[in-house]
Automatic annotation (TrEMBL):
GO terms for biological process: lipopolysaccharide biosynthetic process. This is Glycosyltransferase family 39 protein. Keywords: Cell membrane, Glycosyltransferase, Membrane, Transferase, Transmembrane, Transmembrane helix. Its main location: membrane. Residues 56-216 form the Glycosyltransferase RgtA/B/C/D-like domain.
Amino acid sequence: MSSIQKITAYFKENKAIGWVLGFQLFRLILLPFMGLMPQDAYYYLYGQNLSLSYFDHPGMIGYMLRAFTDAFGTSVFVVKFADFVITSLTIFSFYKLASYFLSKGKQQRALLLFASTIFVSILSFNSTPDVPLLLFWTSSLICLYKAIFEEKKWFWIFGGIAMGLAFNSKYTAILLQFGLLAFLIFSNKYRKLLISPWVWISIIISVAVTFPVWYWNYQNEFASFAFQSSARTSSITKFEISPKNFFGAIGHQMFLLLPILFLVIITFTFKYIKRALLKFKIPQAKTLFLLAFFVPTFVGFFALTPIYWVKLNWMMPSYVTGIIIAGMFINKKLLKTQIIISIVFHIAVSLQVIFYLVPIKSDDTWVGWKELASETEELQENYPNTFIFSNDNYKTSACLNFFMDDKVYAQNIIGLPALHFDYLGDDLSTLKGKNAIFIDSDKRFNNKDKLGTIDPLLTTYFKNVAELEPIIIKINDKESRKFWVFYCTDYQPKK
């Protein structure tokens, strides 16, 4: 039998793998059409300013982008390619993990469910801390499975390393240790491992691996931990019921997972919780293991949605074991419907990416940033010896930094908190007396008029401020984005 015949025979026997490769090929082909997202630019900035950790997240996503851009050069495609490669490794790791719990047929169903979701496409196209988090989360579960069920003690050490690297990707990875202990506590068969030194060695190793994050926070008055917890805790303790938050979360999750998979997950979640609360039935050990790393994240965050706006990506780690459980229940008919819906969604997404059919009234878009950088550089030629800054947390500043040679500043120029821009080590006093160009995005873009007003903070920090003609960005010959422009003279930083 020739090689081609062998390959053909393999894919006939493993149709799901062929479908998964098809989805990944589609994503790879779409990569060159994807423009820079603000998140891509911001986490690229992480990598260009290496640190033990960062203000709003640990640094794994930055290190990842730095490694890829150092190896293959700096371009939008390389940044996207890094996300694609890491997410492809996550898909492979998921397939391996699923093999421990499912028959071959159900394993392939679970793989197809996982790889066809919108959230995998988002991870493949957009740089966020969730990209490495999902890889190390899945790797952690593989190691812990082998340590517990196959009694391979060295995997306690590997599991500890993987859990630590997951935390170095995103703080929500702390739920891995929580899930491990919850599984051991509720498992009659494996509860004895709580007194095993290997479990605690694994946890200690995981904490040791996270040392850079803790040390950076120690050096910076625990700024990152405070940022991630204080405002959110304050909002939650107000306990203000918001149906909009709840139904918004449902809409987000239904979009990320697609309707069939979302409803299957909701169904089995209700089923297992009902059994536990009303009948006091604990699932068999392997299912309990999957639930231990699903329930705290999925149910825990969902429980907050009536009183807090839960971001669409917070529940992503729960999908790993949640989709494996879904693979136990979903039938071929539902799976086929899920794939059809997925194909329709992905075609619609591709048309939007390539042709930009529907204008996006937000700075969270992949279009216009490179054009803005070109327009800004031309503007600097008319107003030489000026520095550039913006005031939208990070988006415009990060994107301009990616495309421009000159350094671009954020809103710390006018005394406002500026996320990790505050920790880049910039001495703003060196800018004293200089002139600047302030770029401000008009997210709604209803007309081409000037703003007509000047932010009082600008006049506090600059002697004179004059509004210039706005920058209008055309996409496919249509006026799609607008940026207000202000010329500011004689910068006076405050002490």
